[in-house]
């Protein structure tokens, strides 16, 4: 699969490494330009290439957004329209500046990204610390395999994202749609940062105890 990644920090570079390892074609980008990513491209190797955010968005059948939430309006919205976009971003008012709509829980950060891009947004990888994402992938059936909650409105898009999660060694857990479901794994929620198996995460979701 062709995968574009926007944001090449802890989360973006970790996902690039996984996706290249399992055989995908990946273009990664940051805010400073592809030439600043030559070290990362050399280190990961394989199919990885660097581009601009626009090039990564155009290239990807799936595009992963791993930037500070405060920068979401910089996303190349024309190139992202109708694409499957994985939103890994989290809103922290202290870091990102206050957004009254999010502070009052009138909407969610993923819904705002969807409204801006008109993309088919699936929220995933936001609730796992990047070091666990880097180090704790395990084969299917391993007792220590961690859950990664995902939420989104489109079943097919969620299935694609769930497949990527399984292939890099984690168990996707479907939290529901991007609004109510997304709230169960955003900062402050029970599933956020929790190191749970799929069974444990599903039990919380079924009990309605995840928010
Ligand atoms: N750290 C974690 O454990 C973790 C886990 C899950 C989710 N998250 C969330 O995932 C997102 C990324 O976190 P991170 O820890 O990976 O951040 P990070 O290490 O600070 O990396 C952020 C990346 O985004 C790029 N970027 C910033 N503005 C951009 C723009 N306008 N266009 C394109 N690229 C841009 C930066 O590029 P430049 O350096 O060139 O500016 C950098 O490569 C955040 O929303 C965070 O809350 C973090």
Low-confidence sequence ranges:
none
Name the CATH superfamily assignment: NAD(P)-binding Rossmann-like Domain
**C-alpha-based Rg, rounded:** 16 Å
Q: How is the main sheet built?
A: 8 strands, mixed
> What is the third-level CATH name, the topology?
Rossmann fold
Mind explaining what this structure looks like?
This protein is of the alpha/beta class. Helix content is 37%, strand content 17%. The protein is globular. The model has no long low-confidence stretch (mean pLDDT 97). The chain binds NADP nicotinamide-adenine-dinucleotide phosphate. NADP nicotinamide-adenine-dinucleotide phosphate binds at residues 6-12, 29-32, 53, 66-69, 71, 74, 88-90, 125-126, 129-130. NADP nicotinamide-adenine-dinucleotide phosphate is lined by residues 6-12, 29-32, 53, 66-69, 71, 74, 88-90, 125-126, 129-130.
Tag the structure with descriptive keywords:
211 residues, Rossmann fold, eight-stranded mixed sheet, 17% strand, binds NADP nicotinamide-adenine-dinucleotide phosphate
């Amino acid at each position: 699969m062709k995968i574009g990644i926007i944001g090449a920090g802890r989360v973006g570079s970790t996902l690039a490494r996984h996706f290249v390892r399992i055989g995908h074609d990946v273009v990664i980008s940051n805010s400073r330009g592809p030439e600043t990513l030559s070290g990362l491209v050399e280190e990961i190797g394989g199919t990885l290439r660097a581009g601009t955010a626009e090039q990564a968005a155009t290239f990807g059948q799936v595009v992963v957004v791993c930037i500070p939430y405060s920068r979401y309006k910089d996303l190349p919205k024309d190139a992202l329209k109708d694409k499957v976009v994985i939103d890994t971003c989290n809103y922290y008012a202290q870091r990102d500046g206050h957004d009254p709509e999010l502070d009052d829980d009138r909407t969610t950060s993923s819904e705002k990204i969807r409204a801006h891009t008109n993309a088919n947004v699936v929220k995933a990888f936001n609730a796992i610390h990047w070091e666990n994402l880097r180090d704790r992938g395990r084969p299917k059936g391993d007792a220590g395999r961690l859950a990664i909650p995902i939420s989104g409105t489109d079943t097919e898009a969620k299935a694609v994202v769930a497949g990527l999660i399984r292939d890099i060694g984690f168990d996707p857990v479907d939290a529901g749609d991007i609004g109510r479901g997304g709230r169960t794994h955003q900062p402050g929620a029970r599933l956020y940062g929790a190191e749970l198996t799929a069974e444990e995460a599903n039990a919380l979701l079924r009990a309605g105890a995840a928010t």
